[in-house]
Amino acid sequence: MRTNGSGFIIDPSGIIVTNKHVIDGALNITVLFSDGDRVRATLIAVSAFIDLAVLKVDVDRPLPVLKWGNSEALRVGDAVLAIGNPLALGVSVSAGIVSALNRNVEDTPFDDYIQTDAAINHGNSGGPLVDRNGDVVGVDTALYNPDEAGGFIGIGLAIPAETARFAVTRLLDPNHPKPGWLGVKLQDLTPELSDALDMRGAKGAIIAAVDESGPASRVALRPGDVLSAIGNVKPSDTRAFLREIVMTPVGQPVPLTVWRDGRDQVITVTIAEWPNYMPGGGIVNAHMAEAMIQKAPDPGVKLEPLTDAARKKYGLDTKLTGVLVSSVEPDCEARDLGIVEGDVVVSVQGTPVTTPDDVWFVVQKAHEQRRRFLALLIEGRSGARWVSLSIGSADS
């Protein structure tokens, strides 16, 4: 299956930022530049918590880059542009404003999305949201629509540049610093909850649970404590508090301002490494890649022997030989190339085929040879035509 997304270059050497969901499960990644050049990309790393991935392309020239902007300076009403590849139509730019900040769509415990009415559609994912100076203030990531199959209705979401830059810097660090962890479950202290617990005057995030193996437990933090500050920072909500913890270096002692028994007190805690964190930040190494490419990818078509009944059903020449395409998956490269039910595969790589096994044998052989594309001669109601189907990850 082929999917499309967007990305942007942050380093002249070919470092590209995109969304993790754009490249999830990909065996082959091809970057199409706005000037029409196509280059194979290597996956460097993916974020364990945020929908971000970093790619690398190798070219013989420095590439133009976009600069990170200051998303913390954004205000509702600021003008922004969303750049990307909506619906695989090609590079497009849409204009709008910042509609809201710090949106929580419950994708992660740290959600801090920028909401914009600049049109974001399927295929925009991973593209830059830029300000009037052309600097990246967000990474276009999602669109909101009650209809899962629907498109843009005026609500697009982007990861703020400050968050994205922090995550990408970590992913590019050879030491792969781990996220910080406190070992508490937090929730916002609402006025109603504050009143019920007789905590009038307290502001912050209330502890709902404490992990017995975490740093919070070791300094005797307990459910009912209210965290109002970490160091000199007073986070605006629970998600902001968790972001501060995650970004704190592992092993660093930090003072927490805690409301307990009607007063503030300061408790120092040493931030630990997030448990069950995937080592390497999701890096795909050579051994993993080799294992992934042993089997040729599924092109998304179902093949059957070509019978007289099929020739009659699809109006095919009675003398035509080959292998019948009996179905094509809705979202695959074969369908994008115009292959439809009733087409006949006459030859593959110039080799005539008469059974499905003939086709798969040639496909697997070409894949083992690390060919990037496979040439198929297809014949159907519209006549004969050649198509090139991507099947592998050649190094050429």
Chain-wise SSE layout:
Blueprint: E1 8-11, E2 15-18, H1 20-23, E3 29-32, E4 38-46, E5 53-57, E6 79-84, E7 92-103, E8 113-116, E9 128-130, E10 136-143, E11 156-160, H2 161-172, E12 180-181, E13 184-188, H3 191-196, E14 205-210, H4 215-218, E15 226-230, H5 238-247, E16 253-260, E17 263-270, E18 272-273, H6 286-292, E19 301-305, H7 308-313, E20 323-328, H8 333-336, E21 344-348, E22 351-352, H9 356-368, E23 373-380, E24 383-390
Antiparallel strand pairs: 1-2, 2-5, 3-4, 4-5, 6-7, 6-9, 7-8, 8-11, 9-10, 10-11, 12-18, 13-14, 14-15, 15-16, 16-17, 19-20, 20-21, 21-22, 21-23, 23-24
Which ranges are low-confidence, i.e. pLDDT below 50, for 5 or more consecutive residues? 278-294
- The shape, in one word, is elongated
Average pLDDT:
86
The helix content is 10-25%
Provide a count of the helices: 9
Give an account of the 3D structure.
The protein has helices at residues 20-23, 161-172, 191-196, 215-218, 238-247, 286-292, 308-313, 333-336, 356-368, and strands at 8-11, 15-18, 29-32, 38-46, 53-57, 79-84, 92-103, 113-116, 128-130, 136-143, 156-160, 180-181, 184-188, 205-210, 226-230, 253-260, 263-270, 272-273, 301-305, 323-328, 344-348, 351-352, 373-380, 383-390. The chain has 396 residues and is of the alpha+beta class. It has four domains: 8-57, Thrombin, subunit H, CATH 2.40.10.10; 71-172, Trypsin-like serine proteases (Thrombin, subunit H); 180-273, Pdz3 Domain (Roll); 295-390, PDZ domain (Pdz3 Domain). A six-stranded antiparallel β-barrel has the order 6-7-8-11-10-9. Strands 19, 20, 21, 22, 23 and 24 form a six-stranded antiparallel β-sheet that branches.
